[in-house]
Design goal:
This protein is α+β, with helices and mostly antiparallel strands. The chain folds into three domains: 1-92, no CATH class; 97-233, Immunoglobulin-like, CATH 2.60.40; 246-371, no CATH class. 19% of the residues lie in helices and 31% in strands. It has eight helices and 19 strands. The strands form six sheets. Strands 8-5-12-11 form a four-stranded antiparallel β-sheet. Strands 7-6-9-10 form a four-stranded antiparallel β-sheet. It is found in: Cell junction, Focal adhesion; Cell membrane; Cytoplasm; Nucleus. This is Copine-3. Keywords: Calcium, Cell junction, Cell membrane, Cytoplasm, Membrane, Metal-binding, Nucleus, Phosphoprotein, Repeat. Belongs to the copine family.
Length: 375
Amino acid sequence: QVDRSEVIKSNLNPVFAKIFTVDYYFEEVQKLRFEVYDSHGQAGVGTHDDDFLGGMECTVGQIVAQKRVTKPLFLKYGKFAGKSTITVSTEPAGGDSGVTLSRGTGAAPNPGYGKSDPFLEIYRIDDDRSEQLVYRTEVVKNNLSPIWEPFKVSLNSLCSCEEKRKLRCVVWDYDSRGKHDFIGEFFTTFEEMQKAMGENKVQWDCMNPKYKIKKRNYKNSGVVVLLDLKIHRVYSFLDYIMGGCQIHFTVAIDFTASNGDPRNSCSLHYINPYQPNEYLKALVAVGEICQDYDSDKKFSALGFGARIPPKYEVSHDFAINFNPDNDECEGIQGVVESYQSCLPKIQLYGPTNVAPIISKVARVAADEERTKEAS
């Protein structure tokens, strides 16, 4: 058990507020099981008296690809739990967009002994009020009006992708022994920083609370100006999938003689009646992951490097179901069956020439781009 929702009392159509955060790995089949109980104990605390109402299994990939999955609840031994269903929806937990803060300038006060060596630190204030250092600028030596270099930071890191999250910015006078002198600080948000986009600039008074108490006419310990801000949207793989992107999965199998005679147990193509050979293991491992993201579950399955019937000429691009008009198989199981029936009919040969199949798949992709189907 990873987590559990809150208990919703006396409700046959509960909507749970609890959000479960799951690490998502595209390259793995991540199986999940959801179980629903009628609680007889305290809220949120499981007891042995709770009645099992049904469960559902799926993969993280299925939920991500469909955004919203509704499935029937099953009791033990595969029986339906009446007409009960469970609906699970998903959203990505924070993007990876970047922000460039260009040329922050600070007018630092004279501490009374020549010019200071100012640098700036930005802290994100988290929900538990703890502070996380987001960025520290370089030190500008011997300067009361420093111009710091532009820098990039991810939006997740800067403000957890929440524009109104508070940020604390502190200006220090650098000291080589590490005992930096506090010049002043100010609070802001990413929402406020965005006003620096385009021709505008944003400025903040850099305040030192100690001086504010001591000096009656104290205004600030200098001003920090943000001259420019740019937002760079970085699209993650998840963004493409949740935007409706489908993956067209094509299998190409190497039937060259270097794999060894399929009748020999040392061959990667060994026809083993008791367990899958190396090619089948690889095919299922990769295919089971990709099939969650392909709506029609039809996979082109091709072979290269073999002599094929009826003339037994070498081919570097043939359909393993021997249907030149339609090389697609139904699901990964269809590819497995076509491979198993094709293997005894061909002669492993050579050379290892992958280019024809890569060119063929590239042409199909280019055609889809022209027809705009891939959008």
